Amino acid sequence: MRVFKAGLMTVAAAFAGIAGVATPAQAATGWDRCEVGYFCAFTGPNGTGVIAQYKVGDPDLSDGIGPTGMDDNIESIWNRTGSMWAVHRQIGGQQGWAMGAGAKLGYLGDFANRISVITRY
Q1: In order of start, what are the domains of the chain with their CATH numbers?
Q2: Which H or E element spans position 78?
Q3: 3-state class of 120 per DSSP?
Q4: Cα dihedral across residues 48, 51, 55, 56: positive or negative
Q5: Mean pLDDT by 10 residues, the chain (121 residues)
Q6: Is residue 83 within 8 Å of 98, Cβ to Cβ?
Q7: In whole angstroms, how large is the CA radius of gyration of the chain?
Q8: DSSP summary character for residue 25
Q9: What pTM does this model have?
């Protein structure tokens, strides 16, 4: 009986050692957070800051429907869909910037922190 218990303790210790070696998966950072099939907007340049992901766009980033905190707070964007998208400074689609499938802009220049509408075409 004593040998059997000692054997079980050895097996348990071996399994505990194996479990302790496993490393946790790293969370995606920067641009890598943008999933395929989404249009992504970031509050910082080059995919940094808070991310918001869109499937259908948002006609009014200030209305609290969809991701919040993005109105006039977007500095970089990536279109990971197969569709054309546009960002606009004003509700109603005035002063827009269109981008094709796969386009990535690390900094929006004059449009940085001035986007209020995201549209999918």
Answers
A1: 30-120 (2.60.20.10)
A2: strand 76-79
A3: strand
A4: negative
A5: 45 44 70 98 98 96 90 98 95 84 95 95 92
A6: no
A7: 23
A8: P
A9: 0.76
